[in-house]
Amino acid sequence: MTVAMRPSACPACAAAPAAEDLVDTAPAKPGQIALSLPGIHCSGCISRIEQGLARVAGVRAARVNLTLKRAQIDTDPGTTAAEMVAAVEALGYEAHELDAGSLAATGNDRAGRDLLMRLAVSGFAMMNVMLLSVSVWSGAEAATRDMFHWISAAIALPAIGFSGQPFFRNAWSALRQGKLNMDVPITLAILLAVVTSLWETALSGHHAYFDAAIALTFFLLAGRYLDHRTRAVARSAAQELSALEVPRAWVLREGTEVEVPVAELRVGDLVRVRPGGRMPVDGELVEGRSEIDRSLLTGETLPVFAEPGQAISAGEVNLTGPLTLRATAVGQDTSLHRMADLVAIAESGRSRYTSLADKAAKLYAPGVHILSALAFAGWYLYTWDMRVALNIAAAVLIITCPCALGLAVPAVTTAASGRLFRRGMLIKHETALERLAQVDVVVFDKTGTLTAGTPELTNLDDLPVDQLRVALALAEGSSHPLAQAITRAAQSAGVDPAPVQDIREVPGFGTQGMLGGGTVRLGRAAWVGAEGRSQTATFLKLGEAPPLAFLFEDKLRTGAEEAVRALRDTGREVIVISGDTPPAVKALASRLGIKDWVAEALPEDKVARIEALEKSGKRVLMVGDGLNDTGALSAAHVSISPATALDAARVASDIVLLGGDLTPIGQACDTARSATRRIRENFRIATVYNILAVPLAVAGLATPLIAALAMSASSITVSLNALRLR
Amino acid sequence: MTMLAYLIPISLVLGGLGLAFFIWTVKTNQYDDPEGDARRILNDDYDDHPKT
Q1: Which of A13, A43, A562, A603 is a Cys-bridge partner for A8, taking CB atoms 3.0 to 4.6 Å apart?
Q2: Could you tell me where the beta strands, DSSP code E, fall in A262-314?
Q3: Domains of chain A
Q4: pTM of the entire predicted model
Q5: Does A67 touch chain B (CB under 8 A)?
Q6: B39 min Cα distance to partner chain A (Å)
Q7: Each residue of A420-454: pLDDT tens digit?
């Protein structure tokens, strides 16, 4: 006998995956624009934005959804999302365009609605049947009892036929493949209860289990609906993150720039990438000079100089000048995608974690069948009465009902995920919480994870004020991250810019201007005639004096110190593995008090290192954001990525940090631990009820009243225990 | 006992009405934005005339 379970947060949830197939995947209609509005919070915001948008030309209707913090706008053709964003921003709210294509899948939660409907019908039927059953238990006799049983049957049969379908369908598909899942004992219990009760009613017997059959359906559907809600919330939030990156590119066609979806790019297209933009394709640089940031791909913080002829990979960020690329690989063929595909392969090869629910199900499903078959055989041999034996077998199946088991996990995960979601953590994978609870080593990536990716000027105090004034004047003319860091530092130190004239930016090199008849330059080492350094630096050339170095360090992400301290205080090891240079990594590690660090790690090194840790029996939590981390993210026991990470990294990780703050990581580990503790407690509670009630059932002493009491009491205790987590 | 002949159908019909009402609310997307709907009631936009 094999027991096959789909990975799911509750043992009985093998029915929910049918959900994924039901989800609407209709493409977005033209004229539908979706905006993300992270700042809205009140009824005033709703009416202000709706009325403000209604006044804009081309808008047919606008509807704000406060729960999802989104606006759905129905527009005339030709109205662009950029106009809508501008309109909302003019009202004083933050707005981002969402890619309607990626959102379409979450627009309509048909599976959830389907479950809710079945839950409502079974709840309605349960209350009515229970009402009749209570009258029977309190002493209805003879003809009255038979009538009540027949009315119960008339309500329960159609209700079970409709509400129980998810279980029946799953049990059938499992049996057809010669497998056994949680839905098989559930289906068997429901069907056997209905059949024996009908038989008993026809012979005007004393006990009918219609109430138990419908209550079983109701409680199990409740567990399944909770599980579905948790996953639907996570899925919709994850999709919103992807939808924020609108896949669009600017292409030169017959001399003019046209905006096209990235999916429509072809090899040989000339693609324009503006400063600050991300490369949509692999290609060769044909025009323009700039610096490019490769940190998401390699972890290096130093920008790389780019000039015509150079090969560019998709995912790199253009920093200073506009660039034109000739596409050599698009879509699925780009190096970005090839690396993401590697992750998919690594993931499918990774041994699957068996969740607590699956372990329980593996013990439970065969155990229940054997017990009830034994009870049937024993009583049949003892009495040679089919009716008695069947009644007792049904009672055993109902009493051992997995209601509490079906609620044990979803009730806890719903409570825990909700709690973490409010703190800015999105639990994407069903078993992520259980795995997070086991973690004893935490591996951080440096660039973009522990650091925010924004440089900070470190040697401000060593710089002469005159030089600083010139540097400020030059830096103000540039949007380069280092120039902006100088501007920020100098302005907060109260420095005024020097009167530098004719300031112009030389893309890829720096900024230059005229001061007192001489040229002043701020930029790359080679351009101003300075020695290059291993640390991030830019140089100021003023007259004949040797170039003056401005040194930078990557700014720490908010909460990085707190998170590292919290993790170490709870006895977990913290390691930094980065693709950056040793001095940069060492500086950061000593700032955070981390002793264990590895620099210049290639993506494969990161994976190897994590695999070695896992082999030595450690449970590794990987926190990373770049494409070079994706392998490590999927190799680790559990993984977290910040919302600013590349899409591929977010897909590879189990948990996404929605805010910029790292602090929740420490708390998440604690919440995960207490959640796992609650799940185990719930299993224990369910087992205790079974240990008390099963002997009664096997001995033939169980009545429908005892079954109803055991079922409701265990389900309610389990749910209440889960709520203690809040 | 003849009471039952009235009371049971009445309780079923009343419960059924509640169920039908609930199914209608699900079908007409009334659970899509619970938070927004709770706030919209404080809005005075359509106090004078209904939304057209």
Answers
A1: A13
A2: 270-273, 282-287, 290-293, 304-306, 311-312
A3: 24-107 (3.30.70.100), 248-347 (2.70.150.10), 423-452+557-673 (3.40.50.1000), 453-555 (3.40.1110.10)
A4: 0.74
A5: yes
A6: 5
A7: 887 888 887 778 888 888 888 999 888 778 887 77
